[in-house]
Amino acid sequence: MGHDVVVAVQADVVESLRAKFAAVLPHLDERQQRLVLAGEARSLGNGGIAAVAQASGASRSRISQGVAELEAGQAPLQRVRREGGGRKPLTVADPAPPNVAAALRHHARDVLRPLVLLKII
């Protein structure tokens, strides 16, 4: 498709969107970007998703997903990721961490013993 402009949206609108997205999108997280793109696409009406995809470089499916999120009417999330996303706390991944202090004391004794013998010789 390249630089073909969708008939429903004028070329100057696409260029204006391109400048806006270049300034704003780098400062937003993934979800915020999707919703901003979707809001612009909805405001443009027919051909809006294609025009926003062309102006932003985002996929049409990503913009459509954002439109669906907006139309679902869900309350704004207080989190960036959905519940359960991200790295699990260490206590969940390994509920019984090893006794590091005891392991170091034991290891230190074994390592230092040959050094003491070398000093005596």
Evaluate the radius of gyration.
Answer: 28 Å
What's the helical proportion of residues?
A: 55-70%
Task: Sum up the overall morphology in one term.
Answer: elongated
Number of helices: 6
Strand segment count: 0
Which structural class do you get from the secondary structure elements?
A: mainly alpha
Distance between the termini: 81 Å
Taken as a percent bin, the fraction of beta residues is under 5%
SSE sequence, one letter per element = HHHHHH
**Largest beta-sheet details:** none
Number of self-contained structural domains: 2
| Mean pLDDT value | 78
Poorly predicted runs are none
Describe this entry's structure for a reader:
- The chain is an all-alpha fold and 121 residues long.
- It folds into 2 domains: 11-72; 96-120, no CATH class.
- Helix content is 63%, strand content 0%.
- It is built from 6 helices and no strands.
- The chain has helices at residues 11-24, 30-44, 48-56, 60-72, 90-93, 100-120.
- The longest helix has 21 residues, at 100-120.
- The chain is elongated.
- 17% of the residues are buried.
- The mean pLDDT is 78.
